Amino acid sequence: MILYEKGTTDFTKNGLGYLNNVLNAHITEELNGEYSLVFEYPLNELLSNELIEERIVKCKVSDGTWQCFIIKKIVKTYEKMTINCSHLFYLLLTNLAENLYPQNLSPKPFLDWVLQRANYQLPFTTTSDVSTVKTARYVRRNLVDVILGNENNSMVNLFGIEVKRNNWNIALNSRIGLDRGEKLVYGKNITGINLTIDTSEMYTRIMPVGFDGLLLPEKYIDADNINDYPYPKIGIFQFGDIRYDPDDSSAYQTLEEAYDALRNAVADLYNNNVNKPRINIKINWIELSKTEQYKQYLSLERVELGDTIHTEIFGLNYVTRVIKTVYNPLNDRIEQFEIGTFQPSYATQMNQYEIELKEVNPESILTEARSNATNLITQAMGGYVYKTNDELYIMDNEDPNQAEKVWRWNINGLGYSSSGINGTYELAATMDGSIVADMITTGTLKTNVIEGYDSLITQVKNNYQEIINKFDGYATTSSVVEIQNSVQQIMTDTYTKTQIDTKLVDGSVEKVQTISGTFDINGMTYEKANAETKTTINEVGINVKDKNNNSILFSGYVDENNTQYADFKGQTIVASENILIRNYFVMPDAHSRIEDYENGGGMFYV
Fold first, then answer.
1. pTM for the whole thing?
2. Are 419 and 406 in contact (CB under 8 A)?
3. What are the tens digits of pLDDT across the range 79-88?
4. Mapped to the 3 state alphabet, what secondary structure does 56-95 carry?
5. Chain segment 107-131, per-residue pLDDT in tens
6. For the chain, which terminal residue's Cβ has fewer other Cβ atoms within 10 angstroms, N or C?
7. How far apart are the first and last CA of the chain?
C-alpha cells in the first residue's frame, strides 16, 4: 500500500511512502453499492503517525488494478490502529446537485452534464456502452445518490446500468463482469448447501400509485405467472415521482403519459423478479485457483464482481451473478463473496448467497466423488425391454408410464433416468460425443488422470501423504494406482466399499474397475459376482451376455467384431430370446405389422 497526501489527483508517484507490515486488510466491493478498504497497522510502525483522516491509500484490488481509498475513520488501541477508507468515488458523497434537470441524454453525457453543474467540480471522467436517452430532475441530492440511489430516477434505476469505479473514471455499462463458465458443483467445489425458498415478499398483482394518489384506469397490472398460484398475491407500490401536472414542465403533461410511466414502473418490477420466490442459498465452496496444488491452473476457478456463476444443486441448475466480493490484498485472494439475482439498487436485499472460501481438502473431494460413482454403478440391472419404432427402453416396470428406473436409447444417444421416461437423465452418452460428467466423477479422473498430468498426481501424494496413508491397500507402480476406502452412505449408517484401479498409460486412462464392473476402451461393463448376466454398453450398442458369454440380448450396430451376428454385418438390429411388445410391431418397409387381436396374434399385410 502507498500513502498519499489529501487532495492528491496524480497517483503515479510514490506519495508519502509505502505502508509496510500491514497486519490485515479487506476490500469490500458491492455491485452498485459499497466500495471500501479496512486495514490494521502497527501503532509504532513507519508512517503510522502519517495515517490521518482524508489522506489517500492506494491498494491493489481483486481485478489486479490499483485503486485509491480516502481515510475516513481511525480507531487506535495501545498496539495497533484500524483504518476505515472509502473509494475515491465517494468524494461525490459531499458534492451537491441543488436543482439539476438533464434532458434526453444517454448515460455518459447525462453524468457529464450533472458533474459540470454540481456545487464544485472534481476530475472525474465517464464512459458508457449504453445509448438509451432519459430525462430526470434532481433537487438537493448528493451526487452518489444521483448515481446509485434507491429512488426511481437515480441513474442505475433510470437506465438499468451497472457502475464500475476505477479511480477517477466512472464506467456506466449495461453490465460488468463476464460469464467465465465458472460452475459450482456439489462434490467438486461445493461442500455444503442450505436452501430456503421464500414467497412472503412476492407479488403477482400490483397496484401502482403515483403522486397525489394517481391510479391507473385498470387499477392493477398482473404478472405473467399469476395463474401459477391459487390466489393473486397483491402488492401496492408507491411512485411519488410520477405525477401529472399540465402546468409544471417537470411533471407529465398528459394523463396518458403518466399512466404509461406507472405501467413501465410495474414492468420494471416484474423484470426484476418481484413476481418470483426469493431463493436464498448458503454455499461452502472451494476456490481451486488460489490453492497450492492447483496454482498452475490460474483460470480453473476465478470470480470477479458481476461475473455469471452456474450453480448445480439438488438436481437443479441456477444461473446467477456475483454481487459482492471481500478481497484480501495481502494474500491476493477473495475470501468471501455473495452471489444472487442482481437488481439495480437492491443487490443486498434480493436472492443472496453467502459463500465462505475454504482450503482444498483432497479427502473430501475424493470421498464425494467415490460416493457418487458408487451410487451410480451399483444400481440394479434387469427389468423389462420395450421397443418402439425409434427407441429402445429397459425399465423396472412393464408399463412405461409407471417405470422409474429407465435406460433409454434412440438416435440421439443413451441415457439413464431414475425419475421415469421423461427424465431427468443423470447419466448419458449423446451423439455429439459428450458424456455426462457424473458417469466418471472421481477426484482423480476429473483433475489428474483425464488430463494426463502424472507430475500433479505425484505432487498431491507428497503434499497429502497423511491422507493417503489412511487408504487401505494403497500402492504405486509405474502403471497402476489403486485406491481403496470406505464411503459413508447418505442418510444411513451403513458403509459400502469400492476399489478403483486406475491405469495410466501415456497420460490417459486405460481402465477403471470396481466390484460392479469395468469402464475401459470396450465400454462400460456391469458384471457382479454370481450374477446370471453381464451387460456391456459402448458406441455400437447394448450387449447382454449369459454365464457362458453368449449374447442373449443385443441392440445396436453389427460391426466386424461381432461374430455372433455376422450375417447382419453393417446393419442395426435388436436380437433377443424374448421381446415384449405391448401393442403392435410395425415393419414399414414391408408394409406389415403384427398385433394382438381377439383370438390370438396375427400378421397383416398392407
1. 0.48
2. no
3. 999 999 999 9
4. EEEEECCCCCEEEEEEEEEEECCCEEEEEEEEHHHHHHHC
5. 999 999 999 999 999 999 999 999 9
6. C
7. 87
